[in-house]
Amino acid sequence: MNKYLLINLPILVALQLLTAQSLAHQNADTWVSADAQVGKSPWGEEDQLGRLNLIEQVDRTKLLAKADWSEVHDLSVDYFVGMPSWQAAGDPSYQIWMTHTPRGAVVDNVLGQGEAINKHVSYSGSAISMYTHTGTHIDALSHFGLNGQIYNGFSADQHLGDKGWRRSGAETLPPIIARGVMIDIAASLGVDQLADNYRISAEDIKLALQKQQVSLHKGDVVLIRTGRMQNYAQAQQFMHNAPGLGMQAARYLAEEGNAMLVGADNLSFEAFPSEVSGNYVPVHTYLLAQQGIPIMELVNLESLAKQRIYEFVFIGASLKLKGADAAPMRPLAIPVRR
Questions:
Q1: pLDDT of 36-95, one tens digit each?
Q2: Domain locations in the chain as residue ranges
Q3: Most buried of 47, 87, 116, 259, CB within 10 angstroms?
Q4: Can you name the CATH fold of 9-77+134-335?
Q5: Rounded mean pLDDT of the chain?
Q6: Which positions make up the signal peptide (predicted)?
Q7: How far is the first Cα of the chain from the last one, in angstroms, to the nearest whole number?
Q8: Which of 29, 10, 19, 11 lies closest to 247 in space, CA to CA?
Q9: Per-residue DSSP letters for 21-50?
Q10: Omega of the bond leading into 282 within 30 degrees of 0 (cis)
């Protein structure tokens, strides 16, 4: 592992794909210099949550009282063999296989109960394997770093073992109940879904919020819709040249919007090719390592978009995968009564 820049394989792939067209997007407002350091948490030198500490400021009783419990929107995707994944970057795809089948259980007498019982009692078992950044998931703060450190100065030399991170692993992510806001960039621009490689700007976000008549509050969960989720069943089409956030938009959400958690309906959150070249760092590094803001990806926002639900109660919890830099998540959105 390179101790001077912790970076994920998908971004390395993006670096190789960087073109002259993407370099044309460079300007002082959309780049963050790589000589910048990781963020230090205002919640103390041992803090592993970053912006998720804002959960403690949420009046959950008041928030939940606003929810319209007559409908609950599931924002997660199905997991299946052949689903979109980072196979091009060398990461394992989702796989499922049967470890026990009803007939096999009889033949092997796996329950040790004898053939008479096994013939009447069906028994199935299955196992899965996958990259932790597969399907609807949340990136922990350990996912990206700078100069051998992750958010709040935890170093790979001291805190990364053979069995994962000993700081800021996925097991530290708490259950999240907060105000959620969906920003439908595609609808705001009058398209079914954003064009390939479309790089969302801060102005795009402001325009969508204005049209939706919704404002951002400190500590919100902010989810961006590109419309790409409509291609989810076709993995190659879903993955190919996906639209996503640019650095300018990420800075707006972090610094002006004061978001606690951000997410989108694509696989990479940011647009590829990433705004990365030589002395600069990508959106993931800025949000995770410098701002302490976790990222959700592959969030299914289609049902919210169809009903034009822009404000909701967000409820979500991820698997407590100790030491992992991401974990599957099944988020829910409950509309807010108006």
A1: 789 999 999 999 999 999 999 999 999 999 999 999 999 999 999 999 998 767 899 999
A2: 9-77+134-335, 95-129
A3: 259
A4: Glucose Oxidase; domain 1 (3.50.30)
A5: 87
A6: 1-24
A7: 51
A8: 29
A9: HHHTT--TTS--BTTPPPP--TT-TT---G
A10: no
